[in-house]
Amino acid sequence: MSEDLKLFSAQIRLETCKMLAHRGFGHLGGALSIVETLSVLFGSKMNVDPKHPDWSDRDYFVLSKGHAGPSYYSTLALKGYFPKDVLYTLNENGTILPSHPDRLKTPGVDTTTGSLGQGISLAVGIAKALKLDGKSNKVYTIVGDGECNEGQVWEAFQFAAHQKLDNLIVFIDENRKQLDGLTVDVNNPFDLRAKMEAFGFYALRVDGSSEQAISDAIDDCFDHPNQALCIVLDTVKGQGVEYFEKLADNHHIRFASDSKAELEKAIVELEKRVSLGGVR
Amino acid sequence: MAVVMAKEQKPIEMRAVYQQALVEILREHPQVVVMDADLVGASGTAKVFKEFPDRCINMGISEANMIGAAAGMSLVGKVPIIHTFAPFATRRVYDQLYLSGAYQKANLRIYGSDPGFTSGHNGGTHTSVEDLALMRAMPTATVLAPADATQFAWLLKETSKMHGIFYMRASRKGLKDIYDPASTFEIGKGIVLSEGSDVVIFAIGEMIEQALLAKEELENSGVSVAVVDMFTVKPIDRDLIERMIIGKKLVVTAENHSKIGGLGSAVAEIMAESGCGVPLRRIAIQDRFGEVGLPDYLQKTYGLTKDDIIQAVKEVIK
């Protein structure tokens, strides 16, 4: 299972790099940091049917950090929600793939997000409604560490804890960077796992580049009923492509000269990795 | 639409109307959920929350999350009815209503209570003079200002069967009964309460009573006045406005809201586009903030009484 997920991660990362290289610019850093989490969710944990995106018994996914759209779209295309070549229409006039996810435009996208802080509220609402109906669907959401600057996020966390939403896993993608720099410099989030625990969550912190660690943490969470659940993902912005991991300003990149060449180099390496079954 | 005018006055508080309507709606529609942000006591719904503990959710003092969570619930089939004070239901959560709500076609009914002068002792911080302007500017939103208990109850029940963003603004206190409880309405259609040949007053909410009082006095001095209830502020009843202004010497709008962006603006837009050339006077709150005081003091201070309407008419029709 783990080897398959490594391959799926490599494929998601490859498609994400290819679509952004084609477009020439985009939110690369935060899209790459969640690749392994997307891989585990859509590759093994989530109960979904790409042929029937609106299937009412499906598990729900809310990308609260909506600017990571490109890796989400790559995941959906690889799962078969829409043809892979659609990925190259990202942000084109009239595309079904806008910068930030839109549930009315893209098959498989459950919620419209991008105005930071709002997706997590949608996720807690979906989880609460499913509980009211006595349904067993799970809900997964990824919140950015920078996004946790938003007060609404903490309103939603408090609600999730108070309502004991144990059908929802809140991932916080702690890649330590936001648009204007390091999170500790812009608006220090301090110890996110400890904060979530203090908010009443069962909160874990795991290596967000390890499919196995993410998968184990999800299982661990669901062994803790009657409590809100959180997994803080220790990640790197630009994860999986060394040049972009080290690039200081890697939230939104316009690919030119060095960065363009490095992205193309990364695509060649990722293609090789995919052909070898995802092994790093 | 089958409107019957009230035969007698038995006004009940709007919060009592809200409570009673919610009970009926919750019994009839299993998917309806009710949400409030720590104003359950203030909205008179404690009994409802007790009777339906699962489907009535006190979100605490977190309006942004309330709107977002309600939108999320609606994406999996729930039909939320939400209450908080008008300023918190609109300007405080505008982006949540806009994106989590309207933009992604969520399904929400929002009751914003105590707009304009009805905020009374809660004062300027809790006063909304711009809620209609904000909600009118939101694509696809339906903006409603019920005239009385009958119309408010009807709107709550009717919108619970519909899909969209429905903003309803009303005081928590009682309003004069305009309609007989047997009345039914049509969203988007204004109601001519009385005909007249010289002046037409388009009014909403509390200002309907003032318009009817002004009509009485003006007709004693020989000015014939029509009064129209424009409870649907958006989509506005363009056909009715165009019909009612024909041959009039003056058009008056009356609303417990800023003169910028509310009913007066909506009517002005249609009048300008029609090229009718009839003068317009807007009885509304000037471009100012609210303040603390008893509602009747505030109503006078903001210039929202029958006398303000009469004065505006007499300035044009000597």
Task: Describe the SSE topology.
The complex is a heterodimer of chains A (280) and B (318).
Chain A: H1 2-23, E1 25-26, H2 28-32, H3 35-45, E2 60-63, H4 69-79, H5 118-132, E3 139-144, H6 151-162, E4 168-174, E5 177-178, E6 181-182, H7 183-187, H8 192-198, E7 201-207, H9 211-222, E8 228-234, H10 242-246, E9 253-254, H11 257-275
Parallel strand pairs in A: 2-3, 3-4, 4-8, 7-8
Antiparallel strand pairs in A: 1-9, 5-6
Chain B: H1 14-28, E1 32-36, H2 46-51, E2 56-58, H3 63-75, E3 79-85, H4 86-89, H5 94-103, E4 108-113, H6 131-136, E5 142-144, H7 149-159, E6 165-170, E7 191-194, E8 199-203, H8 207-220, E9 225-229, E10 232-234, H9 238-244, E11 250-258, H10 263-274, E12 280-285, H11 295-301, H12 306-316
Parallel strand pairs in B: 1-2, 1-3, 3-4, 4-6, 5-6, 8-9, 8-11, 11-12
Antiparallel strand pairs in B: 5-10, 7-9
